[in-house]
């Protein structure tokens, strides 16, 4: 598949001009067709005028317009700072439509990946290198830019929200006194009132979003599609404030689209799911990808009987039969999130039911490790949240006491028994351990889905749903538990608290890797010494992995903050890039997980784990529902460190030693050898010596059979086995018989996927 990027660039462009218009809510209405491998339907987007271009008065309008014009002139005369498309490639792949066609003819022309036949329109809406270059059009119409890729856009129209019954209540606000009742302006005022309703009216808000999304269209809009974007305009509309604030886009995905994968599950039945593509969801629906575009959404998805639709919604949807053989599933969220967190999985999934209620009940009521370890958590919760207004669980007394949120497990039929064996029992233990560590669960429920075998990682977390690989199921509870803890940690770090700049991936993955150890230790209820031993063993394994990765990867990909001091900066329009976001090698690298983990581990050792975890809880309470940069966390943490423990730590020194440089961080180089003194590691070293000696004896007496009872090998933990095998792989030669002995001694085929 061609990405049509400049071959010298591996950056992912985020094209949406969020500074001009910011999407606040999406309403998706989709049909999933497994025969054609297409998802088709419409999406309605509700906007607010962007922060830089809000029209507050007639004087403000003139000021806004002049600022907007100045921006246009400046950007038209300067080269774009988003390295994405060369002009010839873009212009040859741009689609145009002025709706001179309809019905089947419209569908046919929209599917062609080339210019439409109307040459006058093709010349009127010309392609541009700059996502906000408007003057190429020969006029001063405002251009709305959305992130979009691998989609066939059929039609774009303005939505007549004023036609909705009962909507007049949103035109009676005192804020509208003296404002012109001209219909176009009235529609935008209605949308403004709707998207700014207070959090305690979220159900009413969702009701009117639903009805507005079903309102008739009131005028088709001009649009063009490029490699990475959908550009929309309305003739004669020159400012974002006057552009329609509710638009409907009719579209369909393409079978080769990169946001979803069409495949079969482990039982051979068809399914489709979002698998965490580097291009996120722009090939599933037109959207604003930049993290700053925090929005809510609701979705109705129709599919054939027998299929189950799972989504990252806060409700547990039940299917509604529309007609013979067709069911509809409805999900929604009331917490604003980036569009990249939207997740869908449609397949013949089976729910794995809990066989032993008593066992789960005893776990849920085990208050010994269910309550947060510091009662000051509850005082922090009484503070006013710092995020945009939404119905927040941190302000809900019942939610604050909920150690285990409701959960369900889904899997293909053939894997249900495997899920019952360990996964079902592990979920409440891991949720309780997470709650004991960080406090309030940010999300109200959890679905866990075992995804098809083509899934490229061990797990992926989205709001209200976790995807797990089938690889975590065999070999006991260890890998399943640690991976589950990692994904649960993302509910706080990666989802409830997101990176303002996606190049700072370590904020999500470093925290989840660090916290997986903390959660898993608590879930197992280990002693202090057991926790220390397991965590030092894990540290050594990760150290070896990081060392190998640093030796075998490009230096530029080893930097956790590749944009350094310009991290978080946006262009005038709000567009930006994810540095190295499309670089193929980056998909397989773990440097953000590992260096991030070692930084957090180093800070925990400096401060002391109890104080450190208390600081993490404080950070969660302060920043949940918000986007952060590295310095937000580091500054708050360093403020809490007593000077005698700080050891001269500063945000700048952490940047220099850990985040802004490639290779192994200097503080870590000194620590690499210390974990070898750990008792669990010493035990492995002793076993390695036995195996090497056995290997030599076998090679010397190859014709003589060795007695099976000559050497007694100890049973090892899964992580110890991994280390043992890594050590043995460093030997120049191992004879085939030693491999057979290894298999028999440790039942390697029955161990987990990491072994």
TrEMBL record:
InterPro entries (UniProt xref)? Aminopeptidase_N-like_N_sf, AOPep, ARM-type_fold, M1_LTA-4_hydro/amino_C_sf, Peptidase_M1_dom, Peptidase_M4/M1_CTD_sf
Residue ranges occupied by any Peptidase M1 membrane alanine aminopeptidase domain in the UniProt entry: 441-658
* UniProt keyword annotation of Protease present: yes
- Gene Ontology CC terms, in alphabetical order: nucleolus
GO molecular function terms here?
metalloaminopeptidase activity; zinc ion binding
Q: Where is this region: Disordered?
A: 101-122
Q: State whether keyword Transmembrane applies.
A: no
List all Polar residues biased stretches.
Answer: 111-122
Question: Pfam family of this protein, just one?
Answer: Peptidase_M1
Q: Mind telling me what this protein is named?
A: AMPO Aminopeptidase
What is the source species?
Melanocharis versteri (Fan-tailed berrypecker)
Per the UniProt record, the lineage of the source organism begins with:
Eukaryota, Metazoa, Chordata, Craniata, Vertebrata
């Amino acid at each position: 598949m061609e990405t049509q990027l400049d071959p010298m660039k591996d950056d992912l462009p985020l094209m949406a001009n969020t500074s001009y218009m910011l999407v606040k809510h999406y309403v998706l209405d989709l049909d999933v067709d497994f025969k054609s491998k297409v998802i088709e339907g419409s999406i309605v987007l509700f906007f607010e005028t962007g922060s830089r271009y809000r029209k507050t008065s007639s004087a403000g309008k003139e000021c806004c317009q002049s600022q907007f014009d100045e921006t246009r002139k400046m950007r038209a005369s300067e080269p774009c700072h988003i390295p994405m498309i060369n002009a010839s490639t873009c212009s040859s792949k741009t689609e145009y439509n002025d709706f001179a066609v309809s019905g089947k003819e419209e569908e046919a022309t929209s599917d062609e990946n080339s210019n439409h036949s109307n040459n006058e329109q093709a010349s009127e809406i010309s392609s541009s290198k700059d996502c906000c270059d408007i003057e190429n059009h020969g006029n001063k119409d405002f251009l709305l830019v959305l992130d979009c890729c691998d989609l066939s856009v059929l039609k774009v129209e303005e939505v007549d929200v004023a036609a909705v019954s009962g909507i007049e209540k949103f035109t009676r606000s005192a804020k509208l006194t003296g404002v012109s009742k001209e219909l176009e302006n009235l529609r935008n005022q209605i949308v403004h009132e709707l998207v700014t309703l207070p959090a305690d009216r979220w159900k009413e808000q969702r009701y009117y979003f639903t009805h507005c999304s079903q309102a008739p269209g009131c005028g088709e809009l001009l649009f063009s599609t490029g490699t990475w974007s959908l550009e929309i305009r309305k003739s004669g509309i020159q400012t974002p404030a006057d552009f329609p604030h509710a638009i409907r886009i009719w579209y369909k995905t393409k079978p080769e689209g990169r946001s979803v994968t069409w495949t079969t599950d482990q039982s051979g039945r068809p399914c489709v799911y979002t698998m965490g593509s580097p291009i996120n969801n722009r090939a599933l629906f037109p959207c604003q990808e930049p993290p700053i575009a925090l929005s809510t959404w609701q979705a109705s998805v129709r599919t054939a009987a027998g299929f189950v639709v799972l989504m990252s919604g806060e409700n547990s949807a039940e299917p509604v039969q529309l007609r013979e053989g067709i069911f509809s599933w409805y999900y929604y969220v009331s917490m604003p999130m980036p569009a990249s967190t939207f997740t869908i999985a449609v397949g013949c999934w089976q729910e794995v039911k809990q066989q032993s209620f008593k066992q789960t009940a005893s776990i849920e009521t085990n208050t010994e490790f269910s309550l947060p370890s510091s009662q000051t958590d509850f005082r922090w919760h009484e503070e006013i949240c710092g995020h945009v207004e939404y119905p927040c669980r941190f302000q809900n007394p019942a939610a604050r006491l909920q150690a285990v949120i409701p959960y369900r497990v889904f899997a293909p039929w053939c894997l249900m028994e495997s899920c019952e064996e360990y996964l079902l029992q592990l979920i409440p233990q891991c949720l309780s351990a997470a709650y004991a560590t960080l406090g309030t669960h940010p999300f109200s429920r959890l679905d866990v889905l075992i995804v098809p075998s083509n899934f490229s990682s061990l797990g992926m977390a989205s709001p209200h749903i976790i995807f797990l690989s089938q690889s975590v199921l065999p070999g006991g509870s260890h890998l399943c538990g640690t991976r589950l803890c990692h994904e649960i940690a993302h509910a706080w770090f990666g989802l409830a608290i997101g990176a303002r700049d996606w190049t700072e991936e370590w904020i999500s993955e470093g925290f989840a890797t660090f916290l997986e150890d903390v959660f898993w230790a608590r879930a197992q209820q280990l002693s202090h010494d057991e926790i220390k031993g397991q965590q030092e063993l894990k540290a050594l394994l990760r150290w070896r992995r990081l060392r190998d990765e640093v030796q075998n990867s490009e230096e530029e990909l080893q930097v956790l903050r590749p944009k350094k001091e310009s991290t978080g900066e946006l262009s005038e329009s709000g567009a930006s890039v994810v540095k190295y976001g499309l670089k193929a090698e980056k998909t397989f690298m773990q440097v953000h997980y590992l260096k991030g983990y070692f930084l957090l581990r180093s800070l925990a050792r400096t401060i002391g784990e109890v104080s450190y975890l208390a600081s993490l809880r404080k950070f969660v309470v302060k920043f949940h529902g918000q986007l952060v940069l590295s310095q937000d966390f580091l500054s708050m943490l360093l403020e809490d460190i007593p000077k005698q423990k700080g050891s001269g730590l500063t945000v700048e020194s952490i940047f220099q030693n850990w985040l802004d440089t490639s290779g192994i961080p200097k503080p870590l180089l000194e620590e690499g050898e210390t974990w070898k003194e750990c008792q669990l590691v010493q035990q492995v070293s002793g076993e390695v010596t036995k195996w090497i000696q056995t290997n030599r004896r076998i090679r010397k007496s190859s014709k003589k059979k060795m007695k099976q009872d000559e050497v007694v090998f100890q049973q090892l933990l899964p992580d110890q086995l991994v280390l043992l095998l890594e050590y043995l792989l460093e030997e120049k030669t191992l004879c085939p018989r030693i491999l057979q002995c290894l298999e028999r001694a440790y039942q390697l085929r029955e161990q987990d996927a990491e072994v």
